[in-house]
Amino acid sequence: MVHVLLRRDWFGRLRLALTLFGLPYTFCTSRVRPAVACSASYLFSQTIRSISTGCCNLQATMPSSAAPHVKSRCPQYPGSKIKRFAVPDDKVDWSQNWPQYCPVSYTDQAVLKKPVWADPEIGSFSPKFNTVDGGVDRTSFEGPYKEEKGKPLNPHGRTGVTGRGLLGRWGPNHAADPIVTRWKVDAKGAKVNHSVSKQPILQFVSIKRKDCGEWAIPGGMVDPGEQVSLTLQREFSEEALNSLVVPPAQRAKIHERITKLFKSPGFQVFKGYVDDPRNTDNAWMETVAVNFHDESGNSVSELPLQAGDDAGQVQWVDVDSSFPLYASHSHFLELVAKERKAHW
């Protein structure tokens, strides 16, 4: 009894000292009673959240807007009830020693059912990382990435969840994002300038994703052995024009217009790691984003837009910084606007 009172007094004094210094404190009482959550307190009412991971519940500050891969550390993993382990900005990098890091492991059931686009679980096969493994490109645009216990490590650091989540491949999952643009014109065909910036307004083909309801650039995964240029054309045709279900005669017309545009010199907007909410410690998105611009407005601009299987809606949208987009797509559009000397 005396020991318990002394222990409580010691806790109280330590808690007071840490609070006076503005430091967080965490006490685990699993030796006294199993499944008891740890507690934490921050001075000045900093934003905190608790993440249950099967070990002690730890609390940490939310990532700041200027931090690395913010969307990759979103509080709840998309399409699930899985809560990420909270990773503060200063603990993102793998070089930072963090023994308390205890992320939950999660791979979606759709991935575990072994569709053709997904890898098996590690243990049942041994992928060759940092190389082209059969038809699957496991190299990263970021350069060689590290491995730990036979699994690849996200080159941008901790995300708060291990496994593959919604992603099919261990390591980099390569995608292609075609950014198809045209000038916004008035009834006479003259370019429309923005009232504030006085610069001409670009429009791009945007789809509303069914999985999250966010607007995005149409795009998709690069098939094994497929050239990125073909992926760009295929994904735009399928997602924005629904070419898989249109009549053969109309499909031929679409193919002709699309092929002509996608054979033109496109502007490579981005090539690298994507801050995507689906990213995990062991699987992440990388993409090549290319802008194909219909300067005259008589190419794909004249084709009727129709949403494909992965898109709920599709439409031409004004390029503007105030328009919210999925993942890193806003950044891609900003680069396009600067390249085309258009309003942003």
UniProtKB/TrEMBL annotation:
<dbReference type="InterPro" id="IPR039989">
    <property type="entry name" value="NUDT9"/>
</dbReference>
<protein>
    <recommendedName>
        <fullName>ADP-ribose pyrophosphatase, mitochondrial</fullName>
        <ecNumber>3.6.1.13</ecNumber>
    </recommendedName>
</protein>
<comment type="function">
    <text>Hydrolyzes ADP-ribose (ADPR) to AMP and ribose 5'-phosphate.</text>
</comment>
<dbReference type="InterPro" id="IPR000086">
    <property type="entry name" value="NUDIX_hydrolase_dom"/>
</dbReference>
<comment type="similarity">
    <text>Belongs to the Nudix hydrolase family. NudF subfamily.</text>
</comment>
<dbReference type="InterPro" id="IPR015797">
    <property type="entry name" value="NUDIX_hydrolase-like_dom_sf"/>
</dbReference>
<feature type="domain" description="Nudix hydrolase">
    <location>
        <begin position="183"/>
        <end position="339"/>
    </location>
</feature>
<dbReference type="GO" id="GO:0047631">
    <property type="term" value="F:ADP-ribose diphosphatase activity"/>
</dbReference>
<dbReference type="Pfam" id="PF25969">
    <property type="entry name" value="NUDT9_N"/>
</dbReference>
<comment type="subunit">
    <text>Monomer. Interacts with GLOD4.</text>
</comment>
<dbReference type="Pfam" id="PF00293">
    <property type="entry name" value="NUDIX"/>
</dbReference>
